[in-house]
């Protein structure tokens, strides 16, 4: 791959790494799993980047790759992730600290969201990121109407989980 393509990837990943952290938080239960999943998503993004045509925003494309990677890996095994070797020295991107203390006020919500199925988690995540239903539908590969209906059902489900 060209040096210019590599620079573009690194720049885009730096700008969007917080969305990857949030997806990792939704699909993992501890720091080791979080870091493993973050690395695997980064690798999958890097491998797929040459095929990124720019027809959608990088963040939308990254959501889709990250969510698909997380869902695929955690359906196979919730204990371990199969990873590939990656030249960390050459492609090292400093990982921003993900401060869990700052998110104490949403722990209850995360606990409730962990009880949802994989697609529901993805939908809630994108909704909380203020994505519009058009982008949510595009990312998840469903219709906009279906995304709205699912979100309304999820809201009801979360209210029942949080306040039984």
From TrEMBL:
Domain RNA polymerase sigma factor 70 region 4 type: 108-158
Annotated RNA polymerase sigma-70 region domain residues: 14-78
Entry-linked SUPFAM superfamilies: Sigma2 domain of RNA polymerase sigma factors (SSF88946), Sigma3 and sigma4 domains of RNA polymerase sigma factors (SSF88659)
A single GO molecular function term of this UniProt record: sigma factor activity
Highest taxon listed in the record's lineage: Bacteria
Keywords: Sigma factor, Transcription, Transcription regulation
Alphabetical GO biological process terms: DNA-templated transcription initiation
Annotated family: Belongs to the sigma-70 factor family. ECF subfamily.
UniProt protein name: RNA polymerase sigma-70 factor, ECF subfamily
Lineage of the species this protein comes from: Bacteria, Pseudomonadati, Bacteroidota, Flavobacteriia, Flavobacteriales
């Amino acid at each position: 791959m060209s040096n210019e393509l590599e620079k573009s990837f690194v720049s885009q990943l730096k700008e969007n790494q917080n969305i990857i952290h949030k997806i990792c938080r939704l699909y993992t239960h501890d720091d080791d799993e979080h870091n493993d999943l973050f690395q695997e998503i980064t690798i999958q993004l890097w491998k797929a980047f040459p095929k990124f045509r720019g027809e959608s925003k990088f963040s939308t494309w990254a959501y889709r790759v990250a969510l698909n990677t997380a869902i695929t890996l955690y359906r196979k095994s919730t204990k371990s992730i199969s990873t590939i070797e990656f030249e960390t020295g050459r492609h090292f991107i400093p990982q921003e600290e993900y401060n869990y203390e700052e998110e104490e006020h949403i722990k209850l919500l995360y606990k409730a969201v962990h009880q949802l199925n994989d697609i529901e988690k993805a939908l809630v995540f994108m909704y909380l990121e203020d994505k519009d239903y058009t982008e949510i539908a595009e990312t998840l590969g469903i219709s906009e109407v279906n995304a709205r209906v699912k979100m309304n059902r999820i809201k009801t489900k979360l209210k029942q989980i949080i306040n039984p």
